[in-house]
Amino acid sequence: MGKNIILIGLPGAGKTTLGKLLSNIIGYRFIDSDAFIEEKTGKSITDLFQIGEDYFRNIESDAYKEIADFEDTIVSTGGGVVKRNENIVALKQNGTVYYIDRAVEDITHDIEVSHRPLLKDGFERIYALKAEREALYQDAADFVVKNDKPLEELAAEIIAHHIGAGKEGEAHDNPQ
Ligand SMILES: Nc1ncnc2c1ncn2[C@@H]1O[C@H](COP(=O)(O)OP(=O)(O)OP(=O)(O)O)[C@@H](O)[C@H]1O
Ligand SMILES: O=C(O)C1=C[C@@H](O)[C@@H](O)[C@H](O)C1
Ligand SMILES: [Mg+2]
Questions:
Q1: Which ligand places an atom closest to the C-alpha of 118?
Q2: Where is the binding site for ATP, in residues?
Q3: Tell me, what's the ipTM?
Q4: Strand 172-173's sheet: what is its strand order?
Q5: How many Å lie between the centroid of ligand 2 and the Cα of residue 118?
Q6: CATH fold of 4-167, please?
Q7: pLDDT digit of tens for each residue in the chain (176 aa)?
Q8: Which atom number of ligand 2 is nearest to the Cα of residue 118?
């Protein structure tokens, strides 16, 4: 059975769109951890966050432990997956972690903030998230993919890495 493909990165980095595209190409199941949590709890991420961030993060960590047992699955994670190392440890048991590294300026062009609890006060917060989390995303990643090109090209880079072929270019095995 193939290892899971775990996509991490900031809100708006392209994880869900790329994950669905990868799923169509290689036939693995696609899951989005936020949607998985909403289905399991019957509550929206916004509602869970309103109860308290710790409350949400506990539910999120439990979800990653469940997801870690899946096989042949592409996982689009929540942007905060790296806030707890236990999440990454669990997901790496049967998964390779790909950091989708996208410039904040590109993200702000493409997303709106209304249903995003962390961005409800505006885009400024995403600059802070980038500063807070960049090192965490880099440390967690087995492989870094720069999202500054068509998503089909990112998908090709990830598939090449996944099948063990390796590839020259901006995507690179993470030396950290
Ligand atoms: N390389 C790209 N070219 C064109 N559009 C892109 C690219 N990367 C991302 N996008 C667009 O950016 C938006 C955000 O992408 P997406 O929803 O996949 O991000 P995400 O990481 O899943 O974010 P979140 O989970 O926080 O919603 C989408 O409209 C997507 O189509
Ligand atoms: O970046 C984050 O911390 C979050 C991202 C979303 O995917 C959700 O998981 C939630 O809104 C928290
Ligand atoms: Mg998403």
A1: 2
A2: 12-17, 116
A3: 0.98
A4: 29-32, 73-76, 4-8, 95-101, 143-146, 172-173
A5: 7
A6: Rossmann fold (3.40.50)
A7: 679 999 999 999 999 999 999 999 999 999 999 999 999 999 999 999 999 999 999 999 999 999 999 999 999 999 999 999 999 999 999 999 999 999 998 998 887 766 776 767 767 788 899 999 999 999 999 999 999 999 999 999 999 999 883 333 445 577 76
A8: 11
Q: Locate the ligand 2 atom nearest the alpha carbon of residue 116 and give its number.
A: 11
Domain map (residue ranges) of the chain: 4-167
Q: What's the CA-to-centroid distance between 30 and ligand 2, angstroms? A: 18
Q: Which residues, other chains included, contact 77 with Cβ-Cβ below 8 Å and sequence gap of 6+? A: 6, 7, 8, 15, 33, 64, 87, 91
Q: Any residues with Cβ below 6 Å from ligand 2, and which? A: 11, 34, 45, 78-80, 116-118
Nearest ligand, measured from the Cα of 81: 2
